[in-house]
Design a protein that fits this description.
three-stranded antiparallel sheet; alpha+beta; about 260 residues
């Protein structure tokens, strides 16, 4: 019965962790480019009470299956789900959405690289195209002063129209990065991810080539969180938590009955 108390407690902790993950998904339902997470679990090791045995000829037939009992569950990982979110039209000339695979590559303040699906870009005081947090695209793109309009082709080419000109001039190109295992990327907040050993090395390319998606101007990719799905998972996690708490109460009642034996 003591064993069942610890086993049920591990189940309650696991469901609490699952609810924490779901709550973060729901909190970011309106976050641009956000990718939901899914909690993954693994059963703990088993206590073997009696091993399986084949038995001896002419004697008993042995134990066909072992006698063992599991000792609970533990969370093992939170896997990012990189399914595409819905697209919304903003008509902002520097807003970009990736239709397909790929990430925008940006340069962090410490010089390291990060990757994002959030394409809400602006320009700083020097005309550099940056994220909402002020991190510039990599390679950097500078919009000339007095630019009247910006055109972004589906292959990531940025063109700027200057006063007195009739044709827009190319000022840079957005490159996209892809990974062999994007689920292995490390989340660092602000819609950013960093490369890890499990994600593989970045593979840069031109949008629309080598399996990369294309860039659409004036649109943003919304979160891929589906509220109905998260609510169903929340209800399932709550019920599982209640069942495990019921096991704790039952084990406690059995212990109390044992202690009252005269």
């Amino acid at each position: 019965m003591i064993r069942s108390l610890h086993t049920a407690a591990s189940g309650m902790e696991a469901q609490q962790f699952r609810i924490d993950v779901i709550s973060n998904n729901l909190a970011n339902v309106n976050t641009t480019g956000f990718k939901k997470s899914r909690a993954e679990f693994q059963d703990l090791f088993y206590q073997e009470i009696r091993a399986a045995s084949a038995g001896n000829a002419g004697e008993n037939r042995g134990q066909a299956a072992p006698l063992e009992v599991g000792l609970g569950v533990r969370p093992t990982s939170t896997q990012k789900m990189f399914t595409a979110g819905d697209f919304i039209q903003t008509n902002n000339p520097l807003d970009m959405a990736i239709e397909g695979d790929g990430f925008f590559k940006v340069r962090m303040q410490d010089g390291s690289s990060a990757y994002t699906r959030a394409g809400a870009f602006v320009t700083d005081r020097d005309g550099v195209v940056v994220t909402q947090s002020g991190n510039p695209l990599d390679p950097p793109i500078i919009v000339p002063p007095e630019t009247q309009s910006i055109v972004i082709d589906r292959d990531g080419t940025l063109k700027a129209l200057q006063p007195g000109e009739t044709e827009a001039v190319e000022i840079g190109r957005v490159e996209l990065a892809q990974f062999t295992n994007p689920a292995g990327l490390k989340s660092i907040g602000y819609g950013m991810y960093q490369q890890t050993e499990t994600s593989g090395v970045e593979m840069l390319g031109v949008p629309g080539e080598q399996g990369l998606g294309t860039v659409t101007q004036g649109m943003l990719e919304t979160s891929n969180v589906k509220v109905v799905e998260e609510m169903i998972d929340l209800i399932a996690a709550q019920r599982a938590y209640e069942i495990n708490s019921r096991v704790v109460r039952t084990a406690d009642e059995m212990l109390r009955e044992s202690s009252n034996i005269r």
